[in-house]
Amino acid sequence: MSKHPRRLLRGTVLVCALALGATACGGSDDGNSGDKKVGSADIQAALKKGGTVTVWAWEPTLKQVVADFEKKYPKVDIKLVNAGTNNDQYKALQNAISARKGVPDVAQIEYYALSQYALTKSVADLKPYGAEKLADSYSPGPWNSVQAGDGIYGLPMDSGPMALFYNKRVFDKYEIAVPTTWDEYVEAARKLHKADPKAYITSDLGDAGLTTSLLWQAGSHPYKVDGTEVGIDFTDAGATKYTETWQKLIDEKLVSPIAGWSDDWYKGLGDGTIATLPSGAWMPANFASGVKGASGDWRAAPLPQWTKGATGSSENGGSSLALPELGKNRELAYAFVEYVNSGAGVQTRIENGAFPATTKDLNSEAFQNTEFPYFGGQKANKVFAESAKNVPADWKYLPYQVYANSIFNDTVGKAYISGTKLAQGLKAWQDASVKYGTEQGFTVEK
Amino acid sequence: MTTLQPSAATGPRPAGPPARRARRSWTGWGFIGPFVLVFALVFLAPLGYSIYLSLFRTQLIGGTTFVGLDNYQQALQDSQFWGGVGRVGLFLLIQVPIMLGLALLIALALDSGRLYGKDFFRISVFLPYAVPAVVASLMWGFIYGTRFGLVGDINDAFGVKLPDPLSSDLILASIGNIVTWEFVGYNMLIFYAALRVVPHSLYEAAEIDGAGQWRVISAIKLPAIRGALVIATIFSIIGSFQLFNEPAILQKLAPNAITTDYTPNYYTYSLSFSGQQHNYSATVAIVMGVITMIVAYVVQLRGMRKGA
To answer: Is the predicted ipTM greater than 0.90, yes or no?
Structure first.
């Protein structure tokens, strides 16, 4: 099963190589795109000519890929710059774009942030470079996330299909079953906290990424986006399911009030006082590096369901590589992005712990059979790959999600520290998002 | 008729000096030029640019348009902005008197000459001022932690349950504590320096007149350092209104208690860097600057009038 696609790939590369010289084409039909505005021939010519490409990204596995790429194309110089992680980098990027100076040629942009750049035409449409031919090679969630309107504004680099990470040692100790529905999750939370008042099912102080991912899984569609027309509504059936369940966890003080990624949080994950973590498939690498002491304790399970027996899932995090409109060396930049996200770079990145967005790799046996020493030898990728398949592709983020997320704790956060209900908090978030959208010139349906 | 003559005589006289004055004034500019240039560049240009920015509005959809004073009108009705102003106002009313009171007490104690280890005491009170505000906030953030911080350790060690300093009820007081810790030494030094220049003959005269220590303090020392008190108060007012580092750092630990509009400065930062609303951010900054100037000026007027 795994051999056949590989042989096919090798053959494709050979054909490409014969036709165009050594190429970065990972797609199978690059050879036909000569009539496009920017054909493979142009890209090949650019690769031969060489040049410099500046890349802003914080993804650690890129380092090796850059080295490989430069080895393959000695005339191309990739400058990999870490301009900060997510929000910090977006601030820097936005400032560079406003100043029209110092804009990188390639930028890592998370899916939730991409549409903002696409809408303002700050990043280039990749269709002229043949990006739409890659459509079938990506799983639906990420591929949907890089599109806005008619354009394709980035290539998916990784993805974060959700899973429930749980501390098996704690669950075994208190003889709690791993929850398969969110109702069972609440039950497990009660049982655990009763057995050990210091232990909590999870930690949550209000996290926009988690909330939107859970809404996504619950089948809610809070954001409707059509160009500059935007609708925001947190009251549909899916959202109600989420607020009713999560409200119980907050009211009964079953979630630990610890901010994610803080020192306390890592300690809690390590000592069993935070017993589960619903998160994206990119999390294992963070477990292995940040919670070394708990190696062997944790496992991955499918995300609990809103309806018993369902298999719904969603994405949490994940990034694309995009080409800022003001960047230079467009052909080279695209060649690099394709190499990383569709070509040989994918395998290199998987080997270094990244979670791919390409279906070929997600379904490969070698990938699915990888045993995670940290998870006691569990073949966790099977859980993640199954989750990736079940992500509904119809989710939309706001074209100004970066800002909306920045005010999440101002509004929804109130539900965690006062008598405000979660639903009221979401309403406040909705109102603030509507206000901002209107100020920014969007047509916001109220 | 006779009156005409002087006027006629004075007529031509002014014609001479202007030419000479003009020449002189150019020489003057030569000297003052470099200063004016730097002054204009580093003081006036940023102010001018902010005011220029505040007259426009840039939207994600629609680009940049000239909106006149619309941004100012919006700022004056912005509950988020005024909420922040109210918060720093409350902070000012409570934290500044405590901090200055403590600083004054320490300065008077040092000046009384009755302390052992005076130099050590002085340097250790002053030392926190040398710690950068960001570092101080991070440090206090660790201390405040109820799980793994000092507060948590105390809770565990003594089996007590101290209130959470990072809860939304206490966070402002916790920030006040950090700021007080940072700036007591600085203000103490201002007061102490002012006390040192009071002539000792006054104290001797007071002693001869039979005045006690309290009388000396209230009748000689405090009036003598009134100028320093006013200056320190004005600095503290400006500092309170500019509160930023402490809430910005603690926000990571208490994201729900500290909102992105917690203080006016933090609000302008959020507007600018999260919301891309540079124009409105500039407006809020200018309005806040004007408020600060007014309050500082009022305090100065009052302080000086009492002093007179």
So the answer is: no
